[in-house]
């Protein structure tokens, strides 16, 4: 009897070991997330760190007197860029309806503060033949255009130093809408594929538990047509009360792949009307263009971003130029080097580094901030 029990225990242990090995392989082998309970529960994330050299193009005495530590003179630093951790899942309720959810958090790896975690795209929704309807917190259509049609996101070449940025206040209009409802769908056409997004919030920039009793609405729309390796998109955001006024912002972009080369162009126009009259800090146009060349395990990037002058402020534009090389080391694991430089007109102070990089780099009017970075990124 004891021999039979030993055989049973050995068999049970073997089955358990096999079960663990299968699940470990599933976790490690997927670069798009680890399936814990099939598609009903997946864990995913990105760990992204870099060593940076930054120079604000200002004297030492000016940098030492700056209180926000955004003015640097040839300083080295460590940044966690946009590291994140999330869970998501899809649960079929029946043959026609499925439940969707996602909870995603930004993780600050190199600081110890109350901002170590912050909420990114997080939602609950349903999907079916009608598309998907989500409620929660999510990128606006205006933001989605630049994130999907630009390169070097979350590095020191991040487009948010120019696109959606103010000369005086930095990155301001690459936002997620709070307490929003979003409807999206995709339709196959004879000439290609068309997908669209409609988003609305009555309380988009008032993240509190109080009921909305004032006009803080936001609505946005996105339409994208794609065929083979070509796509074109247009998106618009409208904010009734933000940054002391009303904002209407539009982005148009196109992307095409020719063999190993991918090219994209983005144009944005922002109308910012202040409640007190006049134009606000975001009332200007901007554009960007980027090229990506892929060869074996390497990718090479070039990106140009430009902001025009404000209507009533001459010489208030800027031009940002970035180049980078990225190598894939293993599935989900990449390393890169990148150089970026921003040339401000005499009356402009666009930052050299802003957005998802983490550490920022500011300058003085007419300054030419520059930065160099070596990074390592693991996505699972």
Number of helices: 3
Name of the CATH homologous superfamily of the largest domain? Porin
Q: Please give the largest β-sheet.
A: 16 strands, antiparallel, barrel
Number of domains: 2
Low-confidence stretches: 1-31
Polypeptide structure, described:
It is a single chain. The chain is mostly beta strands and 380 residues long. The chain folds into 2 domains: 1-30; 38-379, Porin (Beta Barrel), CATH 2.40.160.10. The protein is 11% helix and 51% strand. It contains 3 helices and 21 strands. It has helices spanning 2-29, 60-65, 141-149, and strands spanning 34-35, 42-55, 75-79, 83-92, 98-107, 117-119, 122-128, 131-139, 165-166, 170-171, 176-189, 192-201, 218-227, 230-242, 245-258, 261-274, 285-295, 298-307, 318-330, 333-344, 370-379. The strands form 2 sheets. It has a 16-stranded antiparallel β-barrel with strand order 2-4-5-7-8-11-12-13-14-15-16-17-18-19-20-21. A two-stranded antiparallel ribbon has the order 9-10. The longest helix has 28 residues, at 2-29. It is globular and about 65 Å long. The protein starts with a helix and ends with a strand.
Topology diagram in text:
Layout: H1 2-29, E1 34-35, E2 42-55, H2 60-65, E3 75-79, E4 83-92, E5 98-107, E6 117-119, E7 122-128, E8 131-139, H3 141-149, E9 165-166, E10 170-171, E11 176-189, E12 192-201, E13 218-227, E14 230-242, E15 245-258, E16 261-274, E17 285-295, E18 298-307, E19 318-330, E20 333-344, E21 370-379
Antiparallel strand pairs: 1-2, 2-3, 2-4, 2-21, 4-5, 5-6, 5-7, 7-8, 8-11, 9-10, 11-12, 12-13, 13-14, 14-15, 15-16, 16-17, 17-18, 18-19, 19-20, 20-21
